[in-house]
Amino acid sequence: MIDQVRPADLAAWFAQDADATPVLLDVREPWELQTASVAPAGFTLVAIPMNEIPGRLAELGEGQRIACLCHHGARSQRVAAFLNQNGFDQLANVAGGIDAWSSHDPSVPRY
Known about the structure:
Layout: E1 3-5, H1 10-14, E2 23-26, H2 30-35, E3 44-47, E4 66-69, H3 74-85, E5 91-94, H4 97-104
Parallel strand pairs: 1-5, 2-3, 2-4, 4-5
């Protein structure tokens, strides 16, 4: 099962494993990252567009806590399901995506 975590609750979800640096996996396209992005705060930000994930799995550690992020949450949910099918088990989908994040953090532009 893949956790659904609101942006405001992400730090608490990441804190469940204090032994490893968690990853926020942003699966949006490069133009989207230029439009709105988040600053890493207690996590490593990794940006891999959704269509590149299968060829770049080696960049992700199977033991890491990984929260997937996209614009509204649909692409990131699909990526989280794909990762789960490929042996990753500490996964979350950022519910509402960067759009929800922007309502939680006014420094993140809404698009």
